[in-house]
């Protein structure tokens, strides 16, 4: 956050606001992961996806906070960022796949029971 020292006041306020929101997102996403870990999230594909996606977000927010305070070596920063972004992309693709599976199940149920279309 030192990189904003000496900048206009508005820039400093915006930077601290962004930092506070990043911290809030990290806290909330970790809180979800901890609370969701108490249920059988592994029992369904949707539960596994929700847990992995939220954990990826929590790690991304946490590392972003760390990078805002400590400036790690560029190679470390790039490797961690690429790894997390790849994980999130994988989980987003999985979400799209799960939506397709759910739609096919609904369509199959509707075709098996024509009155369900109403």
Task: Walk me through what this model shows.
The chain is an all-alpha fold and 118 residues long. It has one domain. Helices cover 78% and strands 0% of the residues. It has three helices and no strands. Helix 1 packs antiparallel against helix 2 and helix 2 packs antiparallel against helix 3. The longest helix is centred in the last third of the chain and has 39 residues. It is elongated, with a radius of gyration of 20 Å.
Summarize the structure.
The chain is built from three helices and no strands. It has helices at 9-36, 45-69, 74-112.
Report the total helices: 3
The Rg value, from CA coordinates, equals 20 Å
What is the SS-derived class? mainly alpha
Query: Into which percent range does the helicity of residues fall?
Result: over 70%
Q: Residue ranges: pLDDT <50 for 5 or more in a row?
A: none
Keywords for this entry:
single chain, 118 residues, mainly alpha
List the helices and strands and how they pair.
Layout: H1 9-36, H2 45-69, H3 74-112
Helix pairs in contact: 1-2, 2-3
């Amino acid at each position: 956050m030192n990189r904003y020292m000496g900048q206009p006041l508005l820039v400093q306020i915006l930077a601290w606001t962004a930092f506070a929101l990043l911290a809030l997102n990290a806290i909330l996403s970790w809180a979800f992961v901890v609370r969701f870990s108490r249920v059988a999230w592994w029992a369904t594909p949707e539960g596994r996806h929700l847990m992995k996606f939220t954990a990826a977000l929590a790690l991304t927010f946490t590392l972003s906070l760390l990078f805002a305070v400590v400036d790690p070596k560029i190679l470390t920063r790039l490797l961690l960022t690429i790894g997390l972004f790849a994980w999130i992309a994988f989980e987003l693709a999985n979400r799209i796949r799960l939506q397709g599976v759910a739609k096919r199940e609904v369509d199959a149920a509707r075709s098996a029971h024509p009155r369900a279309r109403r």
